[in-house]
């Protein structure tokens, strides 16, 4: 009987350790993307210009004639990207610089970065931001107090 009790205790400890380790690896379920009603509205002239700047003569093929892709881009431009001026250094966080983000120049090979940052004319589609992550992302515009905040598509 003395041998069985330690063996049973060891088996229980191993089972509990295994169960505890595996329960921490459970990934949270991802909910469906919820779109605001504003994605159903037609593109405005600024949005169409932004798409054409990045996709050039492929705009129809890769965006405008693909309803889901167009909806995702409208959602990104209208609901998920925020440009925020954060002047107080205590409120600023370390994050990648805009200059470190590659350009999306697959469709328009001579696409260039803006030499001067203007929040009103900034085209976020030009950059390969991580827009599909589970959490949001933030980037700092070089030599400014502007931050580009990309909200998660699952929020």
TrEMBL record:
<protein>
    <submittedName>
        <fullName>Uncharacterized protein</fullName>
    </submittedName>
</protein>
<keyword id="KW-0732">Signal</keyword>
<feature type="signal peptide">
    <location>
        <begin position="1"/>
        <end position="23"/>
    </location>
</feature>
